[in-house]
Amino acid sequence: MPLSRVALESSAGAARGQIGTYHPFKKADDIQNEANELLRIRDYLFKELAEKTGQPMEQVHKDLSQIKRFNAQKALDYGLIDRIVRPPRIKADAP
């Protein structure tokens, strides 16, 4: 839809854990393994996003370092969406 907005943000910040998940005896190896898995998933998602949107990997990393918001046209230009659907009651030149 022409008036839609798309927010692009990294989920890496969600890896901080939840209240009640503190483990005082968690091994350093376990923490390292979890960190490696999160980095593997992040790199995979960044690679997929770069391939699907046609954006360079550096641009995807830069854009996901903070929340980036797109209007419908900018999302289309970036490659996040395939097209903008315009209902008959919305003018073709709507922002």
What is the spatial order of strands in the main beta sheet?
A: 1-2
Mean pLDDT: 82
Radius of gyration: 18 Å
Q: Biggest sheet, open or closed, and with what strands and sense?
A: 2 strands, antiparallel
Written as H for each helix and E for each strand, in order along the chain, the element string is EHHEH
State the helical fraction.
Answer: 40-55%
Number of helices: 3
Oligomer: single chain
Beta-strand proportion? 5-15%
Low-confidence stretches: none
Structural class: mainly alpha
Task: Walk me through what this model shows.
- The protein is mainly alpha-helical and 95 residues long.
- It is built from three helices and two strands.
- Strands 1-2 form a two-stranded antiparallel ribbon.
- The model has no long low-confidence stretch (mean pLDDT 82).
Would you spell out the secondary-structure blueprint of this structure?
Elements: E1 5-8, H1 28-53, H2 57-64, E2 68-71, H3 72-78
Antiparallel strand pairs: 1-2
Helix pairs in contact: 1-2
Short note summarizing the structure:
With 95 residues, this protein is mainly alpha-helical. The chain is 43% helix and 8% strand. It starts with a strand and ends in a 17-residue tail after the last helix.
Key terms:
elongated; 95 residues; mainly alpha; two-stranded antiparallel sheet; single chain
